[in-house]
Design brief:
146 residues, alpha+beta, two-stranded antiparallel sheet, 4 helices
Length: 146
């Protein structure tokens, strides 16, 4: 069996069709072991490439007066109670990368630039969206404090 996209995609299918060969012969068992090892390495690389899922909430007009609101040095905002990053509406531009995989070319998001807008909208529209976040009401975590 040749290496490439077909091997990654159909190795389980091939094994199930020729089960006797892969289980009853030494060559078959060696090939099966190599296929499983290749698949395990591929899965480990895929898992290592995944980032921890982070919580994000939109900036509400109430956030700035909340006791759980924290603003960092470089303009990053956080909600301490929800352990979430606070971002302005329409902000968050994805940064793409093209990764070559065994089955061809594939693009994926590498990171997100939270200081850039994803759409070309005016600051007036951003401010209006901030006023309307959560239908104009504070988040459940809101506690007046600042």
């Amino acid at each position: 069996m040749g290496k490439g996209a077909e091997e990654n995609k159909d190795w389980r299918e091939e094994v199930s069709k020729n089960l006797e060969y892969y289980l009853d012969t030494k060559e078959g068992r060696n090939e099966l072991m190599e296929m499983i090892k290749t698949e395990a390495i591929r899965l480990l690389q895929q898992i290592k490439g995944r980032q921890r899922v982070k919580e994000f909430i939109w900036l509400s007009r109430f956030c700035l007066n909340c006791s759980y609101f924290m603003k960092g040095k470089r303009g990053f905002m956080r909600c301490i109670k929800l352990d979430a990053k606070i971002v302005k509406p329409f902000y968050g531009k994805p940064l793409w990368a093209i990764m070559l995989t065994a089955n061809g070319e594939e693009s994926l998001i590498v990171d997100i630039d939270w200081h850039s807008k994803s759409l070309n909208v005016s600051e007036i529209l951003v401010e209006e969206a901030i006023n309307r976040v959560n239908n104009g009401f504070p988040y459940p975590c809101f506690e007046y404090g600042q």
